[in-house]
Every structure is written in C-alpha cells, then in structure tokens.
Amino acid sequence: MENQQPDSRWKSVAKGLTWRCLATLTTYLISWGLTGSLETASQIAGIEFVLKFGIYYMHERAWAWGPIQVSKVKSKLTKARA
Known about the structure:
The chain is an all-alpha fold.
C-alpha cells in the first residue's frame, strides 16, 4: 500500500463533477416533484451543485493526502531509527 499514489487533483475534480451531475439530477427531480415548480427545483439544484461540489472536492483531497502522507512519514521515521 505504500506504493499507492493519491488521486491527482484533476481526477478528484472529474470524480466530483460526474458524481455531482448525477446527484444534482436526483435533487432536481425530487425538488420538482415536491414543489411542482421547475424554477424552484432549478434554484435548489443549482445551489446544491455548487456547495456540494466544493465540499466533495475538499473531502476527496483530504482522503488523498491523509493516509498516504502518514505512511510516508512513518516509513521515514522507521528508516531514520535504523
């Protein structure tokens, strides 16, 4: 697992965009069904897309950085002690 590379920033963006499109479509359809208004459903879906895409990107980057960087630091410490 130490050789595993984190996803690139662009891959995180692509994953975020594809997921947000699918999830936003779902939100749009639910909002339209509940309100009966295409305009309100569009506003809800638009806000949801922007906010949740940003949150997803930050979450994805934290996961890409965290475990791999921790294992690199542990490896360096182990080598330094030897």
